[in-house]
Design goal:
With about 270 residues, the protein is mostly helical. Helix content is about 50%, strand content about 10%. It has one domain: Phosphatidylinositol 3-kinase, Chain A.
Length: about 270
């Protein structure tokens, strides 16, 4: 008689839904050069079908649908936001969001990954590892138009509301949180032993640690996020509220320190 094993980490997602999410993750990796992943949306009907498939644990029918990658990313974002258990464990969130003055983003990220390895198991651990692997892949494979000299990749910032329960007080220090999240994504392949995509660097020396191949560039992005504290800028944080396409812009102005929130419903 077979005995089913149960892990506390399995309650976050069903086995079938996890398989459906993995299908979506693989699809997004194949379309990593698409502009606007996790930041742009358009076809609500396509997004709704993909989200419904993930929820039911069915293979999303993506095929040759125009704009499928954008809607797949948006559907995944919605799916994660509706999980009963936070995809990023609460104790890890607390560590990332804590002040920790004088501690580098990289050190905080490594401590956070240690907590993930120690405390997260079962399907929860598998889901989180797959998501961090996806973000690492998208960060490295994104087209040049997706990154800027000042801000680097927009993904760590765009996905902060998905992985972290941010309060108004946390939003004021979004640069610090984004810098730590960037390092967490960068360090995840080595710390969590994720599979590294060979196609990104086919000619690299096998003796080189894959996490260091792009390490200097990623750390440069972290420096840009954590630096420039006196620079006034407006950075978009995109979120999907229910079935509406809502893009929220949070403007931070250092002098004077003012926070402005604008909710714009997209067509």
């Amino acid at each position: 008689m077979s005995v089913k094993t149960y892990s506390a980490g399995d309650e976050i997602i069903s086995k079938k839904s996890l398989i459906a999410v993995k299908e979506s993750i693989n699809f997004l990796k194949q379309h990593s050069r698409e502009e606007g992943l996790f930041r742009r949306v358009g076809r609500r009907d396509v997004r709704r079908r993909i989200l419904s498939a993930m929820t039911r644990g069915e293979k999303p029918q993506l095929g040759d649908i125009n704009g499928a990658a954008l809607e797949c990313a948006a559907a995944l974002q919605l799916f994660l936001s509706r999980l009963k258990v936070p995809v990023m464990p609460r104790n890890v969130q607390q560590l990332i969001l804590a002040e920790n003055p004088g501690v580098s983003p990289r050190t905080v990220a490594r401590d956070a990954l240690g907590l993930i390895r120690q405390d997260v198991n079962g399907r929860h651990g598998e889901l989180l590892c797959d998501l961090l692997g996806l973000l690492r892949h998208l960060t490295l494979a994104a087209p040049p138009s997706e990154c800027s000299e000042l801000r680097g990749s927009p993904l760590p910032v765009a996905l902060l509301p998905v992985f972290f329960a941010l309060t108004p007080a946390d939003l004021v220090k979004w640069r610090q949180v984004a810098a730590r999240f960037s390092e967490l994504i960068n360090e995840a392949p080595a710390r969590l032993r994720l599979n590294y995509n060979e196609t990104l660097h086919p000619a690299r020396d096998s003796s080189v640690d894959p996490t260091e191949v792009e390490g200097s560039r990623m750390r440069g992005e972290v420096d840009r996020l954590s630096g420039n504290r006196d620079l006034s800028l407006c950075y978009p944080v995109t979120g999907l509220a229910g079935e509406r396409n809502v893009c929220e812009y949070i403007a931070f102005m250092v002098q004077p320190r003012v926070q402005v929130r604008l909710a714009i419903e997209l067509p």
